[in-house]
Write a structure and sequence with these properties.
single chain; 397 residues; alpha/beta; 13 helices; binds pyridoxal-5'-phosphate
Length: 397
């Protein structure tokens, strides 16, 4: 019998998707499940993007260039200019989602056994991408008590070894919604320059910031041209998760020429989706204004309602569309499964993502869940009411 690789065996299951069979069974039993577990927005994709594909008269669905279509890359560079991020089309490689951008970035700068420092909790798939590249994640712990702010820089310095190749941040953060301040990025800039590390910033939620705070990109005048690698995606920005388009951006020519070799090996990003993504750049500002108002409304409501539940602790997110909540349960994994298997309130229940999968340190976050506020407000209110009733019942069993 041929055997599977150790790497394959170590590849983690998605903590977000592993409860899906239980949700499917609940639905088969006639129970309505509110999905607070995944980052699939219910917001409409801009019509300009959909129409660009609908009205297209392509005769042959060809490969594009490995680095992405020329016109699209130029327009992405123009888009960054509006955020005071000064890059050329040649600093950008179009990828199959932010996911592939992460794989290319990690593949381009690490060797097996190298280490990447990541503030935890972090986007769970960083575990998978690191395993795929035989890289070790070294977590630096951010705490719910501090609203998941960046830990002191001394905590990072303690963790740097000769094997450390990069610090990876997600800004705004999935799962915590934390938004890094200018001072925090300055501190990170100092440390990566001092120790010759890359600073990878996953900025796929750049547009989703609230409270009139400005997003700080690592490519905004921090003197990080040789150090910064930005991961980006159209998935959330335009509610185009199924397009599978993202990009990797760096002013470091060697990073881009190396990532290009990875891009050449997979030939090209999807052609139709690039057409849609290029058109999406014409989306009027009013679309983003409306989306931002909607998410802010949802966030305010969710945090207010969750805070009313006895025993629930919740950090206040300032960006993205997630929050991490600590629940009065011993094991959020078991509780999330119980919600789907054994509980309903008038034939309705909720699905949440247990937060332990967003940590790489075993035993941390076991009583936390990530909640995505991707549902309309009426459904969110109902979901929190269900969660409250469920917690009372669960704790009386
Ligand atoms: C923080 C973060 N980075 C990257 C991705 C990857 O997104 P995609 O591959 O759809 O662009 C996601 C998706 O949820 C995410 O939340």
């Amino acid at each position: 019998m041929p055997t599977i690789s150790i790497k394959g065996k170590n590849m983690p299951e998605s903590p977000i998707r592993k409860l899906v069979p239980y949700a499917e069974n609940a639905k088969k039993r006639g129970i309505e499940v509110f999905h607070l577990n995944i980052g699939q927005p219910d917001i409409k994709t801009p019509e300009v993007a959909l129409n660009a594909v609908k009205n297209n008269t392509l005769k042959v669905l060809e490969y594009s260039r490995s680095e992405g279509s020329e016109t699209y890359r130029q327009k992405i560079a123009n888009y960054y200019e509006t955020y005071n991020i000064k890059v050329q089309a040649t600093d950008i490689i179009v990828t199959t989602g932010g996911s592939e951008a992460l794989l290319f970035a990690i593949g381009s700068i690490t060797d097996p056994g190298d280490e990447i420092i990541i503030p935890e909790p972090f986007y769970a798939n960083y575990n998978g991408f690191s395993t795929a590249s035989s890289v070790t994640i070294v977590p630096v712990i951010s705490k719910i008590e501090n609203n998941f702010a960046l830990p002191p820089i001394s905590e990072f310095e303690k963790l740097i070894t000769p094997k450390t190749k990069a610090i990876l941040i997600c800004n705004p953060n999935n799962p915590t919604g934390y938004l890094y301040s200018r001072e925090e990025i300055e501190k990170l800039a100092e440390i990566v320059k001092k120790h010759d590390l890359f600073l990878i910033a996953d900025e796929v939620y750049r547009e989703f910031v609230y409270d009139n705070v400005q997003h700080q990109s690592v490519l905004n005048n921090f003197g990080l041209d040789n150090y910064a690698i930005v991961i980006d995606s159209v998935s959330k920005r335009y509610s185009m998760c199924g397009a599978r388009i993202g990009c990797i951006v760096s002013k470091n020519k060697e990073v881009i020429s190396t990532a290009l070799k990875f891009a050449q090996a997979r030939l090209s990003p999807p052609t139709y989706a690039q057409i849609a993504s290029e058109a999406a750049l014409e989306t009027p500002q009013s679309y983003f204004d409306e989306v931002s108002v909607e998410y802010k409304k949802r966030r305010d409501l969710l945090i207010e309602e969750l805070s009313k539940i006895e025993g629930v602790k919740v950090a206040n997110p300032r960006g993205a569309f997630y929050c991490v909540a600590e629940l009065p349960v011993d094991n959020a994994d078991k509780f999330a499964q119980w919600l789907l298997e054994d509980f309903n309130l008038n034939n309705q229940t909720v699905m949440v993502a247990p937060a332990a999968g967003f940590y790489s340190t075993p035993g941390i976050g076991t009583n936390q869940v990530r909640i995505a506020y991707v549902l309309k407000t009426a459904d969110l209110i109902q979901s929190v009411a269900i969660l409250k009733a469920a917690l009372i019942k669960y704790n009386s069993l």
